[in-house]
Amino acid sequence: MVGQLWAAGEMPGYDGLYRSDDTGLEFDVPGPGAYHPDAGQPIPFRLGGPLDVALEIAEGGSTEMDPYFERPLPDGSGWMAGGGGGMGNIGYVARLQADHSLRWVAVMFSSNPFTTVRYEGPTAHLTNDWRNVLTLNLTDPALT
Questions:
Q1: What does DSSP assign to residue 62?
Q2: Is the pLDDT score of 92 beyond 70?
Q3: Which residues does residue 107 pair with via DSSP β-bridges, in sequence order?
């Protein structure tokens, strides 16, 4: 399901980390607005328990992706991609295989689109259009 959505230029329409094998994790990613006093700050990223991917897609549907970037990982093992979708409040980041197929996509309904990525070793710093930064350790087992 998730891989098919990705191939069609879509992603699940509900917050979560969705893998191409149709497994996933819940997470919470709050994000302040552009004129909020906290704009330009780190974005907390808290992973939760297993996500029922089939149920989330059945209930939440899907949304079109609006890609902003696709950049190779420093170790050459794949790519990071990011952008937005649907209404302007939706953002996503994705880890792709070397052949550009989906490994996982993290959909965030209240983050706004992600526009750039910067690497420091295995750490990805993803910036949204509010200048807020989401930092991910790409060696975390949940994100490999």
A1: E
A2: yes
A3: 16, 92
- Judge whether 68 and 115 are in contact, CB under 8 Å: yes
Cut 0.90: pTM above it: yes
3-state secondary structure of 124: strand
- Radius of gyration in angstroms for the set of CA atoms belonging to the chain, rounded to a whole number: 14
- Gap between the Cα atoms of 24 and 34, Å rounded: 29
> Which of 84, 80, 92, 91 has the alpha carbon at shortest distance from 123?
80
Q: pLDDT tens digits, residue range 15-68?
A: 999 999 999 999 877 665 656 667 777 887 888 999 999 999 999 899 999 999
Return the closest-CA partner of residue 81 out of 33, 40, 113, 43: 113
